[in-house]
């Protein structure tokens, strides 16, 4: 059996495929592709029973073409230098693609969260943050971490608190990390942002009549049958927004197994059951797969498959058997480059990770901007706009001599809240992002992933060229 291709090499294969379509001065494309720095730190953890364990952790800076660099950090037992480097590279291309002004970074701590007490986890995160401070890998203008696998607001708050304690009164220290609780300087809408972005990405893709006709699907989300892998932050919210728009979530895959029901599953019920410690296999469904067999659920009959858990889950072993007509990559790197070739040959529409899950970093960018301005979005103008609109509507009423229905009046005469503005900015970003890659894919006759890489590489190249580093 062929050796598995390292994750960074997988990303670079996608890069090379796009680079073949581009013409730049010598040296520029290799500079964009190279990872600028990877830091490996190890430190001792005193466990609750008094024993000592050595913890390994990483932070990769793929590209310093813009600062700060940005990217999440994850807690996982398979963390490695290769994994963070690949994920940091994806962050560079993702940020460029959706016009978020950062270089790409990623971090990881090699632990499985469930194996540690809360107190141990807090010690690990605080020490990791301290190590990042020492190597200049955290700070509002240097490097701004965010949540990724197994990291939520609690871990981000520990990171913020540790950085702030070490930052000697730096006025914008709160911008050192994103994904914070709102009370700690977070922005409304960040928790669900990546999943909401996945929803917008799918909504854009299924709105194109020609593309849907080619796939034998109708346009629109209503009635589409969806299988989701991973009911975590990204997968749960994506499934929830899709279901709210009329999609049927027919399959859910999690660590303990997978369930399928052609009449649709209740995502909130599954999520609540799991949050309380239950297994999805305990819930009613037409079909069940337990343990590692759950991965076979990727091959279930559906219109849209949303892998939102791990990398490398669609490979040469299952790519021929995938029945979905559309794959929307909520996770980073769920499809190997060899599988990608098979899926393209089979005419499956792949919506690539660097576009589909860009909603997270987009709203993280809004949070960072909010922190640097020290002002909640909408605070200055919400009331002004609401009263301005009310005055305009009253003027129209007196001109035409009729009143708007009270409900309509109240609906229109409002100003936007922070959440409204964040969601609107996210929607604009995802719609514009799709329009760009769809146009490029048409112009170059390529798949959407190659188009996304072409678009991202062009933008990073421009940043280098306009700084005079390359002709
Ligand atoms: P998460 O930890 O909240 O959720 C991951 C889920 O996958 C968990 O519910 C976990 O139990 C499940 N899972 C783990 N192993 C599995 C397996 N073998 N089969 C099925 N399910 C399994 O993580 P997340 O933040 O939702 O991240 C998921 C993916 O999305 C990752 O690839 C991450 O890099 C990517 N991503 C996350 C964000 C974000 O804002 N959180 C942004 C962009 C991309």
Q: What does this protein structure show overall?
A:
The chain has 471 residues and is of the alpha/beta class. Among the domains are: 35-184, Leucine Dehydrogenase, chain A, domain 1 (Rossmann fold), CATH 3.40.50; 193-356, NAD(P)-binding Rossmann-like Domain (Rossmann fold, 3-Layer(aba) Sandwich). It contains 16 helices and twelve strands. It has helices at 7-19, 28-33, 81-97, 118-134, 153-166, 193-205, 209-215, 233-244, 267-275, 337-345, 353-356, 359-373, 382-400, 406-412, 418-444, 448-466; strands at 37-46, 52-61, 69-75, 103-109, 143-147, 225-229, 248-254, 257-260, 287-290, 304-307, 326-328, 349-351. The strands form two sheets. Strands 9-8-7-6-10-11-12 form a seven-stranded mixed sheet, with helices on both faces. A five-stranded mixed sheet has the order 1-2-4-3-5. A hairpin with a 2-residue loop joins β7 (248-254) and β8. α6 packs across α8 and α6 crosses α15 (418-444). The longest helix is centred in the last third of the chain and has 27 residues, at 418-444. Nicotinamide-adenine-dinucleotide (NAD) is lined by residues 147-150, 194, 229-235, 253-255, 294, 308-310, 330-332, 357, 360.
């Amino acid at each position: 059996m062929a050796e598995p291709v390292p994750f960074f090499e997988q990303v670079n294969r996608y890069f090379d495929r796009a680079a073949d379509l581009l013409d730049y001065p010598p040296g520029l494309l290799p500079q964009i592709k190279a990872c600028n720095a990877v830091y490996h730190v190890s430190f001792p953890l005193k466990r609750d029973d008094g024993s000592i364990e050595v913890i390994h952790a990483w932070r990769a800076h793929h590209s310093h073409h813009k600062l700060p660099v940005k990217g999440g950090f994850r807690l996982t037992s398979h963390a490695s230098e290769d994994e963070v480097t690949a994920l940091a590279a994806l962050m560079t291309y993702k940020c460029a693609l959706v016009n978020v002004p950062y270089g790409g970074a990623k971090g990881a701590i090699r632990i499985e969260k469930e194996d540690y007490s809360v107190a141990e986890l807090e010690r690990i995160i605080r020490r990791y943050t301290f190590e990042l401070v020492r190597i200049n890998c955290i700070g509002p203008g240097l490097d701004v971490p965010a949540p990724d696998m197994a990291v939520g607001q609690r871990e981000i708050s520990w990171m913020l608190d540790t950085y702030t304690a070490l930052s000697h009164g730096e006025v914008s220290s709160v911008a050192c990390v994103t994904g914070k609780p709102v009370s700690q300087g977070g922005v409304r809408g960040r928790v669900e942002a990546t999943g909401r972005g996945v929803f917008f990405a799918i909504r854009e893709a299924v709105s194109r009549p020609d593309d849907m006709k080619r796939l034998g699907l109708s346009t629109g989300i209503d009635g589409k049958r969806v299988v989701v892998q991973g009911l975590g932050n990204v997968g749960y919210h994506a499934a929830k927004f899709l279901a709210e728009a009329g999609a049927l979530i027919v399959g859910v895959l999690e660590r303990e197994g997978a369930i399928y029901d052609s009449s649709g599953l209740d995502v909130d019920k599954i999520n609540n059951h799991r949050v309380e410690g239950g297994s999805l296999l305990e819930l009613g469904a037409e079909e069940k797969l337990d343990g590692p067999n759950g991965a076979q659920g990727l091959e279930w009959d559906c219109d849209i498959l949303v892998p939102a858990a791990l990398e490398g889950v669609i490979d040469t072993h299952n790519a021929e058997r995938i029945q979905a007509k559309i794959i929307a990559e909520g996770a980073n790197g769920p499809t190997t480059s060899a599988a990608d070739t098979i899926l393209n040959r089979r005419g499956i529409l792949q919506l690539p990770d660097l576009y589909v899950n860009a909603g997270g970093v987009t709203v993280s960018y809004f949070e960072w901007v909010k922190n640097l301005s020290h002002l909640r979005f909408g605070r200055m103008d919400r009331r002004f706009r609401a009263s301005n609109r009310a005055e305009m509507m009253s003027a129209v009423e007196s001109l035409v001599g009729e009143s708007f229905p009270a409900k309509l009046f109240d609906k229109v005469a409002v100003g936007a809240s922070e959440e409204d503005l964040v969601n609107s900015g996210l929607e604009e970003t995802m719609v514009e992002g799709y329009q760009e890659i769809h146009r490029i894919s048409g112009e170059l006759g390529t798949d959407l992933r190659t188009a996304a890489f072409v678009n991202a590489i062009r933008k990073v190249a421009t940043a280098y060229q306009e700084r005079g580093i390359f002709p």
